[in-house]
Write a structure and sequence with these properties.
By secondary structure, the protein is of the alpha+beta class. The protein is built from 4 helices and 14 strands.
Length: 330
């Protein structure tokens, strides 16, 4: 009986021991993915910012500039690209919409971002654009990979259409979460005018004829939860200028926008709560189940060996009963 029990326990030990690497190296890459139909939005604000009045072409201080960023998954486009890419793909249609304190549009820049659903590596396909211009992204954008490492990453900047390192600057605590802090500095760079301008009649083509150019610089900061790779907070020290040309009336430069752009508090709270939930799901696949299965397998193996040893131990000889005395004949 002990022999049968030890064999059953041994089989269970092998099962749980095999389940540990199976969950971590097989199930995790296939289950931890960005859903293709994901929709998310975020509101950022720059209080006390400087903004260009295109009516007078003068920069002025304003109470607040609001940036609304939306990301919407295109499921049909993702399925079409997957057939040739041979891997799960997510297609995000993004929009960065900037409005002044009066609620009027300052600029809006659409983009299409195509990437691997698990690794977040860019996938190059027709339709990969920023403000209607074709681009070939390198590096990450918006989100870090699952199980983010303490190292620098290549990060795509949509304004310059270029990729440069975003540097790991240390581990911090943000709203009760351990996060990795990353920072990227984009020096002053000449960039394209937005195709949608805030004043009717002004177009990138008409601005170009005046000889005026647009320049941009930023310091980009992210606080990233490493298990999910999701930023729980971000901000930018954003600067834009118009330089040269007849549009400025002889001035060398004028500030188009300058401000410290930060996530709005209600969106911080929502993001932190969502990341904490997703963090538990990822840890279930990468830590809780694999380590729990391995520990259970070792325990069952030890119990199986113990029962096997008990079954092989020689039994004590049975006690002999004293012989009854034989009758003595007379």
């Amino acid at each position: 009986m002990r022999r049968k029990a030890s064999l059953v326990l041994l089989a269970c030990a092998v099962f749980f021991a095999a389940l540990a690497p199976l969950m971590r190296w097989y199930a995790f890459p296939r289950l931890a993915r960005i859903p293709p139909n994901q929709y998310q939005d975020m509101v950022l604000e720059a209080k006390g910012a400087t903004l260009l009045d295109y009516g007078t072409m003068r920069a002025r201080k304003v109470s607040k500039v609001t940036i609304v960023q939306t990301l919407k998954g295109d499921v049909a486009a993702a399925k079409k690209i997957e057939r040739t890419a041979g891997r799960p793909v997510v297609v995000w249609d993004g929009l960065s919409y900037v409005q002044g304190p009066d609620g009027k549009m300052v600029s809006k820049v659409p983009e299409r971002y195509i990437f691997d659903a698990h690794s977040q590596d860019p996938v190059h396909a027709t339709g990969e654009t920023v403000d209607g211009d074709p681009v070939t992204r390198q590096g990450i954008e918006f989100k870090w990979p699952f199980l983010t490492q303490k190292r620098d990453y290549e990060y795509f900047d949509a304004q310059t259409r270029t990729t440069s390192p975003i540097h790991y600057e240390g581990t911090r605590t943000f709203r009760g979460l351990k996060v990795y802090y990353f920072e990227q500095t984009i020096p002053w760079t000449k960039v394209a005018m937005p195709k949608t301008m805030p004043v009717q009649g002004i177009t990138p083509e008409s601005v170009a004829k005046t000889g005026t150019t647009r320049w941009y610089s930023t310091v980009r900061r992210f606080w990233v939860e490493p298990v999910t790779g999701a930023p729980v907070y971000g901000e930018e020290l954003h600067r834009e200028e118009l330089r040269g040309g007849t549009l400025l009336g002889g001035r060398a430069r004028v500030t188009a926008f300058a401000g410290d752009v930060k996530m709005r508090e209600d969106y911080i709270e929502h993001t932190v709560a969502l990341v904490k939930h997703n963090r538990t799901l990822v840890l279930t696949l990468t830590s809780y189940v694999p380590w729990g299965s391995l520990s259970t397998g070792i325990l069952l193996l030890a119990l199986s060996l113990y029962l096997e040893a008990r079954a092989r131990r020689p039994r004590d000889p049975a006690p002999t009963e004293p012989a009854e005395p034989e009758p003595v004949s007379a």
